[in-house]
Amino acid sequence: MNPVYDAASPGEGAVADFVEQWANGLGQETSRLAVFPNRENVLVRLTGPDGAPVLLLEAHMDTVGVAGMPDAYAPDVRGGRLYGRGACDTKGSLAAMMAAIELLAADRDALACTVELLAAVDEETSGQGARAHVEAGGSADAAIVGEPTECRIVHEHNGCVRGEIEAIGRAAHTSVAGEGVNAIDGMAEVIVALRLVNRELSRRPGGPAENGSLTVSLITGGSGINIVPERCVVNYDRRTTPGQTTSQALEEIDAALEGVRATRSELRIERPEPWLVNGSLATPLQEGIVLTASAAREALGCDDTPVRVPYGSDASKFQAGGIPSIVFGPGAIAQAHAVDEFVTIADLSAAVAFYRGVALRFGHRTG
């Protein structure tokens, strides 16, 4: 579990050890990169011919919390499904990638590329594992990021901007409330203004699917029942679509805040820089990895149409680092973070075949 969800969690260490031991057992190269104390990425390298292009397979090792899930880490197979925390988000992808590499290692002569597997930390909070890999010089000619896509090829997905807005007033005893400035009252106007921004996004052509959304998702404020609240803070979540920039999203928020400031001069309203900025993914349909992935799916007799999804992934970090990327994995996003999280055995098998099929095609002129 990601320690953000439980400070007592040891993080991804045990999974990292397992991946490294598995790779060593296959005789493959491994390396580790410390991202946080005692939380390390593991990189496995299946070396292809000299000068061959590099195909990166990536899946994250962390999970969200386990509240409401008895025996969350005890795998339970029934009805053609594997249940447990992380089954589809995204240990299923990681296991399928490992199984594909085992098959590829046994058929190395057929490879025209080098295949790397990155088991990364921290995707569930800020994606620092993927960022650290790129910042440390990690490079590849293309990447496939494992997430629950229902075994569909994802070439575009949304981004996310998260931060906070603070209203600062003046405290006073409620018996003389007029001497104070109520920050919660002022924040109510801020929330209404942000709601109007979201409404405008939904009214633009294409609605939220094409324009994203703005959600006020957390609020804190006040210090006592008999005290006029001096401070109130809200957190916002702005989903951006391909083609939208972070600066554009923040400009819309700032314009709304200026409107409130114009009528509430006694109140100070601050918006610090966002604490999370995840870009969107937009890989052209004619990019080599998209064409190769489609060919691999077609050869398996499966739907090979690339799609766009509203959630995000580590793929945007690799794209930002100059690595053309797609997302593909077993399981459905509706099951990610659910108390009955599962992945179907059929999806796992399909993912293994896909990862292997892409690797065998990648680097060939006919790929």
Structure description:
With 367 residues, the chain is α+β, with helices and mostly antiparallel strands. It folds into 2 domains: 13-157 and 280-361, Aminopeptidase, CATH 3.40.630.10; 159-277, Alpha-Beta Plaits. 33% of the residues lie in helices and 26% in strands. The protein contains 9 helices and 19 strands. It has helices spanning 13-26, 87-105, 128-135, 183-203, 207-211, 246-263, 288-299, 315-320, 345-361, and strands spanning 29-36, 39-46, 54-60, 76-78, 81-83, 114-120, 142-145, 154-157, 159-168, 172-173, 213-221, 227-228, 231-240, 268-270, 276-278, 281-282, 307-309, 325-327, 342-344. A 6-stranded mixed sheet has the order 1-2-6-3-7-18. Strands 9, 11, 13, 14 and 15 form a 5-stranded antiparallel sheet that branches. Strands 4-5-19 form a 3-stranded antiparallel sheet. Strand 4 (76-78) and strand 5 (81-83) form a beta hairpin. Helix 2 (87-105) packs across helix 9, helix 4 (183-203) crosses helix 6 and helix 7 packs across helix 9 (345-361). The longest helix has 21 residues, at 183-203. 43% of the residues are buried. The mean pLDDT is 96.
